[in-house]
Design brief:
By secondary structure, the chain is of the alpha/beta class. The chain has one domain: Alpha-Beta Barrel (TIM Barrel), CATH 3.20.20.70. Helices cover 45% and strands 11% of the residues. It contains 14 helices and nine strands. The chain has a six-stranded parallel sheet. A three-stranded parallel sheet has the order 8-1-9. Helix 5 (148-161) links the parallel strand 3 and strand 4. Helix 2 (27-38) packs across helix 9 (242-255). The longest helix has 22 residues, at 58-79. It is globular and about 65 Å long. The relative contact order is 0.17. The protein binds 5'-deoxyadenosine and FE2/S2 (inorganic) cluster.
Protein backbone atom coordinates (compact mmCIF):
# COMPACT_ATOMS: atom_id res chain seq x y z
CA UNK A 1 0.00 0.00 0.00
CA UNK A 2 2.75 2.34 1.05
CA UNK A 3 4.57 1.54 -2.21
CA UNK A 4 1.52 2.20 -4.30
CA UNK A 5 0.97 5.60 -2.72
CA UNK A 6 4.55 6.48 -3.41
CA UNK A 7 4.16 5.47 -7.03
CA UNK A 8 1.05 7.62 -7.37
CA UNK A 9 2.87 10.58 -5.88
CA UNK A 10 5.81 10.07 -8.23
CA UNK A 11 3.50 9.86 -11.20
CA UNK A 12 1.73 13.06 -10.11
CA UNK A 13 5.01 14.90 -9.73
CA UNK A 14 6.08 13.86 -13.21
CA UNK A 15 2.74 15.13 -14.57
CA UNK A 16 3.32 18.46 -12.87
CA UNK A 17 6.78 18.64 -14.42
CA UNK A 18 5.39 17.81 -17.83
CA UNK A 19 2.70 20.47 -17.47
CA UNK A 20 5.30 23.03 -16.47
CA UNK A 21 7.44 22.22 -19.50
CA UNK A 22 4.76 21.70 -22.15
CA UNK A 23 1.70 23.63 -20.86
CA UNK A 24 -0.46 20.78 -22.02
CA UNK A 25 -1.57 17.34 -20.86
CA UNK A 26 -3.84 14.71 -22.37
CA UNK A 27 -7.33 14.36 -20.97
CA UNK A 28 -6.27 11.16 -19.19
CA UNK A 29 -3.31 12.95 -17.65
CA UNK A 30 -5.50 15.81 -16.42
CA UNK A 31 -7.74 13.15 -14.88
CA UNK A 32 -4.82 11.61 -13.04
CA UNK A 33 -3.62 15.00 -11.84
CA UNK A 34 -7.04 16.15 -10.65
CA UNK A 35 -7.92 12.71 -9.29
CA UNK A 36 -4.85 12.82 -7.13
CA UNK A 37 -6.18 15.84 -5.27
CA UNK A 38 -9.77 14.67 -5.16
CA UNK A 39 -8.27 11.59 -3.56
CA UNK A 40 -10.75 8.95 -4.34
CA UNK A 41 -10.13 5.56 -5.87
CA UNK A 42 -10.80 5.65 -9.61
CA UNK A 43 -14.58 5.51 -9.72
CA UNK A 44 -16.30 2.77 -11.62
CA UNK A 45 -18.55 3.97 -14.38
CA UNK A 46 -21.77 3.87 -12.36
CA UNK A 47 -20.17 6.08 -9.75
CA UNK A 48 -18.69 8.68 -12.03
CA UNK A 49 -20.59 11.48 -10.42
CA UNK A 50 -18.55 11.40 -7.29
CA UNK A 51 -18.34 14.64 -5.49
CA UNK A 52 -15.25 16.72 -5.92
CA UNK A 53 -15.30 18.02 -2.41
CA UNK A 54 -11.69 17.17 -1.86
CA UNK A 55 -10.10 17.05 1.53
CA UNK A 56 -6.37 17.36 1.59
CA UNK A 57 -5.01 14.28 3.17
CA UNK A 58 -1.37 14.33 4.05
CA UNK A 59 -0.57 12.31 0.97
CA UNK A 60 -1.48 15.14 -1.43
CA UNK A 61 0.52 17.78 0.34
CA UNK A 62 3.87 17.27 -1.33
CA UNK A 63 2.59 17.28 -4.89
CA UNK A 64 0.15 20.12 -4.17
CA UNK A 65 2.95 22.19 -2.65
CA UNK A 66 5.20 21.52 -5.63
CA UNK A 67 2.40 22.47 -8.02
CA UNK A 68 1.76 25.77 -6.20
CA UNK A 69 5.48 26.52 -6.16
CA UNK A 70 5.79 26.04 -9.91
CA UNK A 71 2.63 28.07 -10.55
CA UNK A 72 3.94 30.95 -8.45
CA UNK A 73 7.26 30.82 -10.33
CA UNK A 74 5.47 30.95 -13.69
CA UNK A 75 3.34 33.92 -12.59
CA UNK A 76 6.44 35.62 -11.18
CA UNK A 77 8.15 35.39 -14.58
CA UNK A 78 5.34 37.18 -16.39
CA UNK A 79 3.81 39.48 -13.77
CA UNK A 80 6.27 39.64 -10.86
CA UNK A 81 4.58 40.40 -7.55
CA UNK A 82 1.98 42.70 -9.11
CA UNK A 83 -1.67 42.08 -8.41
CA UNK A 84 -4.20 43.80 -10.66
CA UNK A 85 -7.41 45.20 -9.27
CA UNK A 86 -10.75 45.35 -11.10
CA UNK A 87 -13.60 47.46 -9.84
CA UNK A 88 -16.70 45.30 -9.94
CA UNK A 89 -19.98 47.16 -10.44
CA UNK A 90 -23.05 44.96 -10.10
CA UNK A 91 -25.39 46.89 -12.35
CA UNK A 92 -28.54 44.75 -12.09
CA UNK A 93 -29.72 41.60 -10.36
CA UNK A 94 -32.68 41.20 -12.70
CA UNK A 95 -32.17 38.06 -14.77
CA UNK A 96 -34.22 36.14 -17.27
CA UNK A 97 -32.30 32.94 -16.60
CA UNK A 98 -32.95 30.30 -14.00
CA UNK A 99 -29.61 28.58 -13.39
CA UNK A 100 -30.08 26.09 -10.55
CA UNK A 101 -27.05 27.30 -8.60
CA UNK A 102 -27.55 31.05 -8.69
CA UNK A 103 -29.12 33.21 -6.01
CA UNK A 104 -30.43 35.82 -8.46
CA UNK A 105 -32.18 33.23 -10.66
CA UNK A 106 -35.55 34.30 -12.01
CA UNK A 107 -37.51 31.89 -9.79
CA UNK A 108 -36.08 33.26 -6.57
CA UNK A 109 -39.03 35.31 -5.29
CA UNK A 110 -37.19 36.27 -2.12
CA UNK A 111 -34.56 38.20 -4.06
CA UNK A 112 -35.21 41.93 -3.94
CA UNK A 113 -34.53 43.19 -7.44
CA UNK A 114 -32.68 46.38 -8.39
CA UNK A 115 -31.12 48.05 -11.36
CA UNK A 116 -28.57 50.86 -11.17
CA UNK A 117 -29.21 54.02 -13.20
CA UNK A 118 -26.62 55.20 -15.70
CA UNK A 119 -25.87 58.06 -13.34
CA UNK A 120 -25.21 55.66 -10.46
CA UNK A 121 -22.93 53.51 -12.59
CA UNK A 122 -20.92 56.53 -13.70
CA UNK A 123 -20.61 57.65 -10.09
CA UNK A 124 -19.25 54.22 -9.14
CA UNK A 125 -16.65 54.60 -11.86
CA UNK A 126 -15.67 58.08 -10.67
CA UNK A 127 -15.30 56.79 -7.09
CA UNK A 128 -13.31 53.85 -8.41
CA UNK A 129 -11.07 56.06 -10.50
CA UNK A 130 -10.18 58.17 -7.47
CA UNK A 131 -9.33 54.93 -5.62
CA UNK A 132 -6.90 53.90 -8.36
CA UNK A 133 -9.02 51.54 -10.43
CA UNK A 134 -8.23 51.47 -14.14
CA UNK A 135 -10.57 48.62 -15.06
CA UNK A 136 -14.30 48.68 -14.49
CA UNK A 137 -16.27 45.46 -14.71
CA UNK A 138 -19.96 45.95 -15.44
CA UNK A 139 -21.61 42.75 -14.30
CA UNK A 140 -25.29 41.94 -14.19
CA UNK A 141 -28.02 39.42 -14.75
CA UNK A 142 -29.49 39.10 -18.22
CA UNK A 143 -31.70 42.16 -17.85
CA UNK A 144 -33.47 43.33 -21.02
CA UNK A 145 -33.26 46.94 -19.86
CA UNK A 146 -29.57 46.87 -20.71
CA UNK A 147 -30.11 46.92 -24.45
CA UNK A 148 -27.23 47.48 -26.84
CA UNK A 149 -28.20 51.13 -27.00
CA UNK A 150 -28.07 51.58 -23.22
CA UNK A 151 -24.84 49.61 -22.79
CA UNK A 152 -23.09 51.33 -25.70
CA UNK A 153 -24.00 54.74 -24.37
CA UNK A 154 -22.67 53.74 -20.98
CA UNK A 155 -19.40 52.47 -22.44
CA UNK A 156 -19.03 55.74 -24.38
CA UNK A 157 -19.54 57.82 -21.26
CA UNK A 158 -17.11 55.78 -19.16
CA UNK A 159 -14.48 55.99 -21.89
CA UNK A 160 -15.03 59.72 -22.25
CA UNK A 161 -14.69 60.31 -18.50
CA UNK A 162 -11.77 57.90 -18.06
CA UNK A 163 -9.96 57.36 -21.38
CA UNK A 164 -7.12 55.49 -19.67
CA UNK A 165 -9.43 52.80 -18.29
CA UNK A 166 -10.47 49.41 -19.60
CA UNK A 167 -14.14 48.43 -19.65
CA UNK A 168 -14.97 44.80 -19.00
CA UNK A 169 -18.49 43.51 -19.56
CA UNK A 170 -20.06 40.52 -17.83
CA UNK A 171 -23.64 40.58 -19.06
CA UNK A 172 -24.23 37.01 -20.11
CA UNK A 173 -25.26 35.55 -23.44
CA UNK A 174 -26.08 37.94 -26.27
CA UNK A 175 -26.09 37.83 -30.04
CA UNK A 176 -22.92 38.20 -32.04
CA UNK A 177 -24.20 41.51 -33.40
CA UNK A 178 -24.72 42.78 -29.88
CA UNK A 179 -21.20 41.77 -28.83
CA UNK A 180 -19.88 43.49 -31.95
CA UNK A 181 -21.75 46.74 -31.25
CA UNK A 182 -20.50 46.89 -27.68
CA UNK A 183 -16.97 46.20 -28.84
CA UNK A 184 -17.24 48.96 -31.43
CA UNK A 185 -18.49 51.27 -28.66
CA UNK A 186 -15.19 50.68 -26.84
CA UNK A 187 -15.59 47.65 -24.57
CA UNK A 188 -12.24 45.90 -24.11
CA UNK A 189 -12.96 42.64 -22.33
CA UNK A 190 -15.79 40.20 -21.71
CA UNK A 191 -16.28 37.67 -18.93
CA UNK A 192 -18.54 34.72 -19.60
CA UNK A 193 -17.83 31.63 -17.57
CA UNK A 194 -18.43 28.49 -19.56
CA UNK A 195 -19.54 26.91 -16.21
CA UNK A 196 -18.61 23.38 -17.40
CA UNK A 197 -17.14 22.05 -20.62
CA UNK A 198 -19.22 18.87 -20.36
CA UNK A 199 -22.58 19.17 -22.09
CA UNK A 200 -24.34 16.57 -19.92
CA UNK A 201 -23.04 18.31 -16.79
CA UNK A 202 -24.12 21.70 -18.18
CA UNK A 203 -27.64 20.33 -18.52
CA UNK A 204 -27.67 19.29 -14.88
CA UNK A 205 -26.82 22.84 -13.79
CA UNK A 206 -29.23 24.68 -16.07
CA UNK A 207 -32.89 24.46 -17.10
CA UNK A 208 -33.70 23.15 -20.60
CA UNK A 209 -34.15 26.70 -21.97
CA UNK A 210 -30.41 27.23 -21.67
CA UNK A 211 -28.01 25.72 -24.13
CA UNK A 212 -24.45 24.60 -23.82
CA UNK A 213 -23.93 25.11 -27.54
CA UNK A 214 -25.09 28.71 -27.40
CA UNK A 215 -22.76 29.45 -24.51
CA UNK A 216 -19.84 28.06 -26.49
CA UNK A 217 -20.98 30.04 -29.53
CA UNK A 218 -20.90 33.21 -27.44
CA UNK A 219 -17.35 32.52 -26.29
CA UNK A 220 -16.15 31.89 -29.82
CA UNK A 221 -17.86 35.04 -31.13
CA UNK A 222 -16.36 37.18 -28.39
CA UNK A 223 -12.90 35.93 -29.23
CA UNK A 224 -13.30 36.40 -32.97
CA UNK A 225 -14.58 39.94 -32.50
CA UNK A 226 -11.40 40.83 -30.64
CA UNK A 227 -12.33 41.06 -26.98
CA UNK A 228 -9.94 39.86 -24.30
CA UNK A 229 -12.13 36.99 -23.17
CA UNK A 230 -12.60 35.28 -19.83
CA UNK A 231 -14.17 31.86 -19.31
CA UNK A 232 -14.29 29.82 -16.11
CA UNK A 233 -16.19 27.47 -13.86
CA UNK A 234 -17.20 26.77 -10.28
CA UNK A 235 -15.20 24.26 -8.29
CA UNK A 236 -17.30 21.66 -6.52
CA UNK A 237 -20.52 22.39 -8.38
CA UNK A 238 -23.15 19.65 -8.07
CA UNK A 239 -22.52 16.64 -10.34
CA UNK A 240 -19.00 17.80 -11.11
CA UNK A 241 -16.53 14.92 -11.42
CA UNK A 242 -12.83 14.42 -11.99
CA UNK A 243 -13.82 13.77 -15.60
CA UNK A 244 -15.72 17.05 -16.06
CA UNK A 245 -12.95 19.06 -14.41
CA UNK A 246 -10.46 17.47 -16.80
CA UNK A 247 -12.65 18.52 -19.70
CA UNK A 248 -12.69 22.05 -18.27
CA UNK A 249 -8.90 22.07 -18.18
CA UNK A 250 -8.63 20.75 -21.73
CA UNK A 251 -11.13 23.36 -22.88
CA UNK A 252 -9.18 26.13 -21.15
CA UNK A 253 -5.97 24.85 -22.71
CA UNK A 254 -7.42 24.87 -26.22
CA UNK A 255 -9.60 27.96 -26.02
CA UNK A 256 -6.72 30.10 -24.74
CA UNK A 257 -8.74 32.60 -22.72
CA UNK A 258 -7.09 35.85 -21.60
CA UNK A 259 -8.82 35.60 -18.22
CA UNK A 260 -10.15 32.66 -16.26
CA UNK A 261 -12.59 32.89 -13.34
CA UNK A 262 -12.37 29.92 -10.99
CA UNK A 263 -14.10 29.99 -7.61
CA UNK A 264 -15.74 27.50 -5.31
CA UNK A 265 -19.42 26.72 -5.68
CA UNK A 266 -21.20 28.05 -2.60
CA UNK A 267 -24.82 27.02 -2.07
CA UNK A 268 -27.55 29.67 -1.91
CA UNK A 269 -30.44 28.85 0.41
CA UNK A 270 -33.18 29.85 -2.04
CA UNK A 271 -32.04 27.67 -4.97
CA UNK A 272 -32.55 24.00 -5.88
CA UNK A 273 -28.94 23.40 -4.82
CA UNK A 274 -29.47 24.79 -1.30
CA UNK A 275 -28.56 21.49 0.34
CA UNK A 276 -25.46 20.77 -1.76
CA UNK A 277 -22.06 21.22 -0.19
CA UNK A 278 -19.61 23.94 -1.15
CA UNK A 279 -16.39 23.44 -3.09
CA UNK A 280 -13.15 23.48 -1.14
CA UNK A 281 -10.28 25.90 -0.84
CA UNK A 282 -7.78 23.10 -1.46
CA UNK A 283 -9.20 21.97 -4.77
CA UNK A 284 -9.83 25.54 -5.96
CA UNK A 285 -6.21 26.49 -5.24
CA UNK A 286 -4.90 23.30 -6.85
CA UNK A 287 -6.85 24.12 -10.02
CA UNK A 288 -5.70 27.75 -10.00
CA UNK A 289 -2.13 26.44 -10.04
CA UNK A 290 -2.82 24.03 -12.89
CA UNK A 291 -4.40 26.81 -14.97
CA UNK A 292 -1.42 29.08 -14.29
CA UNK A 293 0.90 26.39 -15.65
CA UNK A 294 -1.29 25.83 -18.72
CA UNK A 295 -1.24 29.56 -19.54
CA UNK A 296 1.55 31.38 -17.65
CA UNK A 297 0.23 34.77 -18.79
CA UNK A 298 -3.49 34.26 -18.05
CA UNK A 299 -5.20 36.86 -15.86
CA UNK A 300 -6.44 34.77 -12.98
CA UNK A 301 -8.61 36.25 -10.23
CA UNK A 302 -8.57 35.12 -6.65
CA UNK A 303 -12.33 35.33 -6.27
CA UNK A 304 -14.71 36.73 -3.71
CA UNK A 305 -16.26 33.25 -3.45
CA UNK A 306 -12.87 31.91 -2.35
CA UNK A 307 -12.69 34.69 0.24
CA UNK A 308 -16.19 33.74 1.38
CA UNK A 309 -15.43 30.11 2.25
CA UNK A 310 -12.13 30.96 3.94
CA UNK A 311 -11.12 34.23 5.62
CA UNK A 312 -7.66 33.83 4.03
CA UNK A 313 -9.04 32.48 0.77
CA UNK A 314 -7.98 35.33 -1.50
CA UNK A 315 -4.46 35.29 -0.10
CA UNK A 316 -4.30 31.54 -0.65
CA UNK A 317 -5.46 32.00 -4.24
CA UNK A 318 -2.67 34.49 -4.93
CA UNK A 319 -0.17 32.13 -3.32
CA UNK A 320 -1.41 29.43 -5.70
CA UNK A 321 -0.76 31.51 -8.82
CA UNK A 322 -3.67 33.97 -9.15
CA UNK A 323 -2.81 37.60 -9.99
CA UNK A 324 -6.08 39.56 -9.97
CA UNK A 325 -8.53 40.64 -7.26
CA UNK A 326 -11.90 42.22 -7.89
CA UNK A 327 -13.02 44.49 -5.06
CA UNK A 328 -16.62 45.55 -5.05
CA UNK A 329 -17.43 49.06 -6.31
CA UNK A 330 -21.21 48.73 -6.21
CA UNK A 331 -23.19 51.18 -4.06
CA UNK A 332 -23.44 49.74 -0.54
CA UNK A 333 -27.25 50.02 -0.76
CA UNK A 334 -27.46 47.22 -3.36
CA UNK A 335 -24.62 44.95 -2.34
CA UNK A 336 -26.64 42.54 -0.23
CA UNK A 337 -29.09 42.12 -3.09
CA UNK A 338 -26.48 40.83 -5.53
CA UNK A 339 -26.23 37.61 -3.59
CA UNK A 340 -25.25 34.84 -6.00
CA UNK A 341 -24.48 32.60 -3.00
CA UNK A 342 -24.92 32.68 0.79
CA UNK A 343 -22.74 34.76 3.12
CA UNK A 344 -20.99 36.68 0.37
CA UNK A 345 -18.32 38.94 1.87
CA UNK A 346 -17.89 42.70 1.41
CA UNK A 347 -21.62 43.41 1.27
CA UNK A 348 -21.48 45.94 4.10
CA UNK A 349 -18.28 47.77 3.26
CA UNK A 350 -17.66 50.97 1.37
CA UNK A 351 -15.64 50.78 -1.85
CA UNK A 352 -12.68 52.49 -0.23
CA UNK A 353 -12.70 49.92 2.56
CA UNK A 354 -12.54 46.99 0.16
CA UNK A 355 -9.82 48.66 -1.83
CA UNK A 356 -7.64 49.21 1.22
CA UNK A 357 -8.50 45.89 2.81
CA UNK A 358 -7.28 44.06 -0.27
CA UNK A 359 -4.19 46.20 -0.54
CA UNK A 360 -3.27 45.27 3.02
CA UNK A 361 -4.02 41.62 2.44
CA UNK A 362 -1.75 41.55 -0.59
CA UNK A 363 1.04 43.41 1.22
CA UNK A 364 0.78 40.93 4.09
CA UNK A 365 1.86 38.15 1.73
CA UNK A 366 4.49 40.19 -0.13
CA UNK A 367 2.43 41.25 -3.15
CA UNK A 368 1.50 44.72 -4.38
CA UNK A 369 -1.75 46.00 -5.77
CA UNK A 370 -0.93 48.06 -8.86
CA UNK A 371 -2.81 50.87 -10.52
CA UNK A 372 -2.71 49.84 -14.15
CA UNK A 373 -5.15 48.65 -16.74
CA UNK A 374 -3.58 45.24 -16.36
CA UNK A 375 -3.97 43.89 -19.87
CA UNK A 376 -2.86 40.37 -20.64
CA UNK A 377 0.89 40.16 -21.31
CA UNK A 378 2.69 38.46 -24.14
CA UNK A 379 4.68 35.53 -23.01
CA UNK A 380 7.20 33.05 -24.40
CA UNK A 381 9.07 30.16 -22.81
CA UNK A 382 12.49 31.34 -21.71
N1 LIG B 1 -21.56 29.81 -6.03
C1 LIG B 1 -20.44 30.23 -6.63
N2 LIG B 1 -20.43 30.91 -7.80
C2 LIG B 1 -21.62 31.18 -8.36
N3 LIG B 1 -21.92 31.81 -9.51
C3 LIG B 1 -23.26 31.83 -9.63
N4 LIG B 1 -23.83 31.22 -8.58
C4 LIG B 1 -22.83 30.80 -7.78
C5 LIG B 1 -22.77 30.07 -6.56
N5 LIG B 1 -23.88 29.63 -5.95
C6 LIG B 1 -20.92 32.24 -10.47
C7 LIG B 1 -21.20 31.64 -11.84
C8 LIG B 1 -21.40 32.85 -12.72
C9 LIG B 1 -20.70 33.95 -11.95
C10 LIG B 1 -21.17 35.33 -12.26
O1 LIG B 1 -20.96 33.63 -10.61
O2 LIG B 1 -20.06 30.89 -12.28
O3 LIG B 1 -20.88 32.72 -14.01
FE1 LIG C 1 -14.02 43.96 0.90
FE2 LIG C 1 -11.93 43.11 2.49
S1 LIG C 1 -12.13 43.18 0.34
S2 LIG C 1 -13.77 44.20 3.04
Amino acid sequence: MEMEEERTEKRTISLIEKLEAQHSLTLAEYEALVGYMVERPVPDSAERFLECKASTGRRTDRAAALLAEKAVAARQQVYGKDVYIRGLIEISNICKNDCYYCGIRRSNRSCERYRLSEQEILECCATGYALGFRTFVLQGGEDAHFSDEVVCRLIGQIKKNHPDCAVTLSLGERSRESYQRMYDAGADRYLLRHETADKAHYEKLHPPQMSFDNRMRCLRDLKEIGYQVGCGFMVGSPYQTVQTISEDLKFIEEFRPDMCGIGPFVPHQATPFAKESAGTVELTCYLLSIIRLIHPNVLLPSTTALGTIDPQGREKGILSGANVVMPNLSPVSVRKKYELYDNKICTGEESAQCRHCLEQRMESIGYHVVTARGDVKEWRDS
